[in-house]
Amino acid sequence: MGLLNFRRKEAPASAPLAAFLRGASIEVMPRTAEKVDDFAAILPRGTRVYIAHIAGTPIEDMVAMAARLRAEGMEPMPHFPARIIRGKDILADWVARYRGEADVRQGLILAGGVEAPAGDFKDSMQLLESGAFEGFERLHVAGHPEGNRDIDPDGGTATLSDALRWKQAFSERTDAKMAIATQFAFEPVPLIEWAQSIKAAGIDLPIHIGAAGPAKLQTLIKFAIACGVGPSLRVLQRRAADVTKLVLPFEPTEMLSALAEHKAADPGFGIEAVHIFPLGGIKASADWLARHRKDEE
After folding, report:
1. How far from each other are the two terminal CA atoms of the chain, in whole angstroms?
2. Is residue 296 within a helix (H) or strand (E), and if so which, with residue range?
3. Paired strand residues for 28
4. Exposure of 244 by Cβ count < 10 A (0-12 exposed, 13-18 middle, 19+ buried)?
5. Among 84-93, 182-191, 205-214, the least confident range
6. Which span out of 75-89, 140-154, 208-222 was modeled with the highest average pLDDT?
7. How does pLDDT run across 29-40, given as a tens digit for each residue?
8. How far is CA 136 from CA 177, 186, 235, in A?
9. Which InterPro entries does the entry link to (predicted)?
């Protein structure tokens, strides 16, 4: 059975999935957000919206995007990628602008997807240690359920595990709420096993699991390869073998339904929320969320 499905007809939202999607977040970039006239028209008030900071994006554009989201009733959470921030003064300037111009209270703290640091910071731990985020209500850090060869080139998880243990310890000495926001994947069972494994290792930071929003198969494969998605890429590769399905949109319904049912059976399960990567467009992802989260209408 495939773990993603394409929609042939409207199906009723399941109660576990609807509950699991409460508080779901979504990600945007300034250039893709230009296609949305009003976020309040497509997302519930208070939705957490991550703002991806791609290298080369002017901070002015990022801050303006955060201010727009705040004005339209959303909760902006900009990315702070360590390796593209040139120094402590730049970091302090970014934080001051976000706080002063957009009332930003939350941030995703990550290393960033560039190979060489532009300045003083090489990883998210150095950003957290800087003290720049004192007063933030919520700080999220990155998680990689399928590993990350940029961090652990041998395909293992030793460096990733050490980093999560450090972040767990940091969370215990800060007032900010912390959580792990993960890369997207396409299979539920490995995600369940990963969540259970880090909990067994003493890491109890809540997990916000990444899922790719509705998109064409070709689009998903392109982004999955570019983002270093691991073994669960095989789900898309199996689907690609059927050329009749190449133009049909895939949705994360089956994967997230499986996780939702696991959460309903085990309320203490570490995955507490869903984060949507709108690879097929913000509107398509917002429509999917609204369809499966009917109890919030």
Report:
1. 31
2. none
3. 51
4. exposed
5. 182-191
6. 75-89
7. 999 999 999 999
8. 9, 32, 38
9. FAD-linked_oxidoreductase-like
Please state, as a whole number, how many other Cβ atoms lie within 10 Å of the Cβ of residue 240. 14
Residue pair 251/258 in contact (Cβ under 8 Å)? The answer is no
Distances (CA, A) of 163 to 77, 90, 127: 22, 24, 13
Q: Is the pLDDT of residue 78 over 60?
A: yes
Q: What is the CA radius of gyration of the chain?
A: 18
Residue 136: its H or E element: none
Q: How far is CA 251 from CA 33, 51, 66, 140, 175, in A?
A: 21, 22, 28, 25, 37
Token pair of 203 as six digits? 């890491």
- Which has the closest alpha carbon to 135: 94, 176, 171? 176
> Which amino acid appears at position 154 of this protein?
D
DSSP string, 81-97: EGGG---HHHHHHHHHH
Q: Which residue has the tokens 């003083």?
A: 120
Q: List alpha helices for the chain, DSSP H.
A: 15-20, 30-33, 59-71, 88-102, 124-129, 158-171, 188-200, 217-226, 233-240, 253-265, 282-292
Residue-range domain boundaries for the chain: 15-296
pLDDT tens, residue by residue, 208-248: 999 999 988 777 777 666 666 666 556 666 665 555 555 66
Cβ-based neighbours of 269, under 8 Å, separated by 6 or more: 192, 195, 262, 263
CA angle centred on 135, ends 207 and 43, rounded to 5°: 50
User: Is-contact 92 124, C-beta < 8 A?
Assistant: no
- What architecture does CATH give domain 15-296? Alpha-Beta Barrel (3.20)
